[in-house]
Sequence to fold (214 residues):
Amino acid sequence: MKTYNILSTFRIIKNSAFLQMKSNAVSIYFIATAFIQPVIFTLISVGTYVYGKKPDFGLFAITGTGLISIWNSNLFTSGEIINNERRTGTLSLIMATPTSLMLILLGKSFANALTSAFAMGITFLTGMIAYRLPIGIADPLNFAISLLLIIFSITCLGLVFGSLFILSRNAGNLHRSQTTRSIYCLVCPCPLLCYRFGHVLFRNCSRQPGEILS
Fold:
């Protein structure tokens, strides 16, 4: 009986993930953030170092761009999981089934994280084709393990955002609003701390932050 329950759980997660992947395949927003945005970000970030006479930092820019693209493609696709089900009228059907809602959401969030991982490969290909950078991974095993951990963590974050966005019917409109600070802090979490504490760091400094970094 325990083996049957485990197999049933994996089958639910697999079917839920498969349906979410098919939904992402026709989603213009997901395609733009997972496949088009990485190319644009890579051209800008890597170009900054290449034309700034610092080509050795190109690989760091590619890796960072890939992580940003993975985050952006999951932020609102996973956050809107429950809201999308409600808008399409399937949420009530899901709640009426004996299947746990958490398992269905887990499969959908995992699908978003897995498909968005292709953004990392797109950034590497863009760097190789556009800038002829010699891309090499010194430790492929650790890189693969790190990528798996990223997928796992993004899957968990997708469940968190999906739960938070459902607290209000207007929560999903945050990314459609014109509030620049809100969008900036959600898309790039690190600048949230910089925005809050940046004035403290440079309060007694006579030079601008850009001058210090240069």
Notes: The chain is about 75% helix and 0% strand. The CA atoms of residues 173 and 207 lie 38 Å apart.
